[in-house]
C-alpha cells in the first residue's frame, strides 16, 4: 500500500458538482440534519469506513459537529467531535500560513531562492524559490514516491533521521522538470519549508505552529504527531487490505514530524481555524488572497493551486479545499467562500477506499438544497 500525504482526485468530484447529491437531499419528510446523517451513513457503509467526524460551518460558526462510527475498533470507542485524527496534507495550509507570517515580518521573500536559507542545495535546484515550494512548481521529486521509499531506496519510512540527516537525503532528489514550468505535487517542498522556518526562527516547525497559530486560536487538540505521548481522544487509523480491516502501517517518529502534514487535530479545532480564515488575526487579508490565487507557470498559464490550497469553482462559486491522507487516515476541508459554507470530514480509513472529498461535497450539496427549499417556503412580501 502506498503511504502518501498528497491530495487524491484533484477537482474530479468538484466537476461533478453538487448536482448528484441534490437529488439525495430532496427526500421529502427529512430535514437537512436528517439528510446529512443518512448520506454520511450511506457513504460509510459503501466505503467501509470505521469512523468519521463531520463539521459544518456557516460564516465561521459551527452549525453541526458530529461523530459517526468507531474511533477504535478493538476497544469499541465511538467517534465524537473531539476525536483526534491525522491531517495528512491538510497540514500544509498551516505550514503555508507560517511562511506567510514570516513574509509579513520581512524575514523571507516569496521569490527568494531556497539556497539563500539552506546550505548545500544541489546545482539543479538553483532556481527553486520559496514560492515554488509553496505551489508545487519546484520540480523537486516527491520523497514519498515509491521510487524512493521501496526497500533499499533513498528514504526508509521506518528509519529515524535527524533534521540534518533527512536534509542530506532530500538534496539527493532530482528535478522532474524545469523549475516553474509545470505543476506536480511534491511533499518534499513542504518538508523543506519546515526546515526554512526552523532556520529563520530558531524554533522547530511544530513549536512555531503552537506558539503562533494553535494557542492563539485555542486549538488545544492540535499538535505534531507523536506515537509516544498520551493524546486524549486519539483515533486509530485503518487500512482495508483484501477486504479485511487492518491497523495502519507504522512510520518512524521523526518522519511524522515534518511540515508536509504530520499533525493531529479534530473538527472542533478546525472549526476555529475556519473562523480565523475570515478574519485578520493571523495574517492580513492580502496575504490570504495570495494563498488563494492560482499559481502562474512559466508559459503564463495558471494552475488551480495556491499556497497549500486547491482552488476551483462550483456553479460559479469559489471553492477552496484540500484533502489529506496518511497512515490510515483521510480528510477533506472544503470552503465555499462565496457562500461562507465550510464542510470538514475526517475518517480513519486509507485513501484507497475512503472518499472524504466526496462526502464533504455531498454534505455541502444537501445544505445548499436545504437553503433553497427554505427560501422557497419563506413568505413573500
Can you describe this structure?
- It is a single chain.
- With 381 residues, this protein is α+β, with helices and mostly antiparallel strands.
- The protein contains 12 helices and 14 strands.
- The chain has helices at 12-16, 19-25, 32-47, 92-104, 130-135, 146-149, 163-170, 187-201, 205-217, 267-276, 285-291, 356-377, and strands at 51-58, 61-72, 77-78, 85-86, 223-224, 238-241, 244-247, 263-265, 295-296, 302-303, 310-314, 317-326, 329-336, 341-347.
- A 7-stranded antiparallel sheet has the order 3-2-1-14-13-12-11, sandwiched between helices.
- Helix 2 (19-25) packs across helix 12.
- It is globular and about 65 Å long.
- The relative contact order is 0.22.
- Mean pLDDT is 92; it is low at 1-26.
Ends distance: 59 Å
In this structure, how is the largest beta sheet organized? 7 strands, antiparallel
Largest sheet, spatial ordering of strands: 3-2-1-14-13-12-11
Mean pLDDT over all positions: 92
Summed up, the helix count is: 12
Strands, total number: 14
Flag low-confidence runs.
Answer: 1-26
Shape: globular
Would you tell me the structural class of the helices and strands? alpha+beta
Helix content: 25-40%
- What share of the residues does DSSP label as strand, in percent? 15-25%
Instruction: Write the H/E string, N to C.
Output: HHHEEEEHHHHHHEEEEHHEEEEEEH
> Rg, please?
20 Å
SSE inventory with pairings:
Layout (H helix, E strand, L loop, with lengths): L11 H5 L2 H7 L6 H16 L3 E8 L2 E12 L4 E2 L6 E2 L5 H13 L25 H6 L10 H4 L13 H8 L16 H15 L3 H13 L5 E2 L13 E4 L2 E4 L15 E3 L1 H10 L8 H7 L3 E2 L5 E2 L6 E5 L2 E10 L2 E8 L4 E7 L8 H22 L4
Amino acid at each position: 500500500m502506498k503511504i502518501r500525504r498528497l491530495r487524491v482526485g484533484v477537482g474530479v468530484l468538484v466537476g461533478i458538482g453538487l448536482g448528484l447529491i441534490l437529488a439525495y437531499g430532496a427526500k421529502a419528510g427529512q430535514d437537512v440534519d436528517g439528510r446529512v446523517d443518512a448520506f454520511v451513513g450511506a457513504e460509510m457503509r459503501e466505503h467501509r469506513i470505521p469512523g468519521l467526524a463531520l463539521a459544518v460551518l456557516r460564516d465561521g460558526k459551527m452549525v453541526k459537529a458530529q461523530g459517526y462510527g468507531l474511533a477504535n475498533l478493538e476497544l469499541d470507542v465511538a467517534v465524537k467531535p473531539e476525536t483526534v485524527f491525522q491531517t495528512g496534507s491538510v497540514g500544509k495550509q498551516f505550514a503555508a500560513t507560517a511562511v506567510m507570517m514570516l513574509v509579513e515580518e520581512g524575514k523571507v521573500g516569496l521569490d527568494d531562492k531556497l539556497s539563500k536559507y539552506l546550505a548545500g542545495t544541489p546545482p539543479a535546484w538553483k532556481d527553486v524559490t520559496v514560492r515554488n515550494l509553496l505551489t508545487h512548481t519546484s520540480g523537486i521529486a516527491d520523497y514519498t514516491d515509491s521510487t524512493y521509499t521501496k526497500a533499499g531506496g533513498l528514504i526508509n519510512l521506518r528509519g529515524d533521521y535527524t533534521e540534518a540527516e533527512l536534509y542530506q537525503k532530500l538534496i539527493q532528489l532530482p528535478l522532474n522538470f524545469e523549475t516553474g514550468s509545470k505543476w506536480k505535487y511534491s511533499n518534499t517542498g513542504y518538508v523543506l519549508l519546515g526546515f526554512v522556518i526552523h532556520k529563520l526562527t530558531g524554533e522547530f516547525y511544530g513549536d512555531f505552529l503552537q506558539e503562533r497559530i494553535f494557542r492563539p486560536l485555542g486549538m488545544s487538540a492540535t499538535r505534531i504527531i507523536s506515537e509516544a505521548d498520551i493524546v486524549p481522544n486519539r483515533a486509530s487509523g485503518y487500512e482495508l487490505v483484501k477486504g479485511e480491516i487492518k491497523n495502519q502501517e507504522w512510520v518512524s517518529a521523526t518522519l511524522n514530524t515534518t511540515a508536509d502534514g504530520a499533525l493531529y487535530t479534530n473538527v472542533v479545532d478546525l472549526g476555529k481555524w475556519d473562523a480565523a480564515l475570515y478574519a485578520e488575526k493571523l495574517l492580513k487579508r492580502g496575504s490570504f488572497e495570495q494563498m488563494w490565487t492560482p499559481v502562474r507557470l512559466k508559459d503564463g498559464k495558471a494552475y488551480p493551486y495556491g499556497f497549500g490550497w486547491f482552488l476551483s469553482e462550483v456553479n460559479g462559486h469559489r471553492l477552496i479545499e484540500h484533502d489529506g491522507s496518511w497512515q490510515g487516515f483521510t480528510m477533506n476541508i472544503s470552503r465555499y467562500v462565496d457562500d461562507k459554507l465550510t464542510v470538514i470530514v475526517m475518517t480513519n480509513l486509507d485513501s484507497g477506499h475512503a472518499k472524504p472529498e466526496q462526502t464533504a461535497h455531498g454534505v455541502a450539496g444537501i445544505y445548499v438544497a436545504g437553503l433553497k427549499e427554505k427560501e422557497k417556503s419563506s413568505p413573500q412580501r
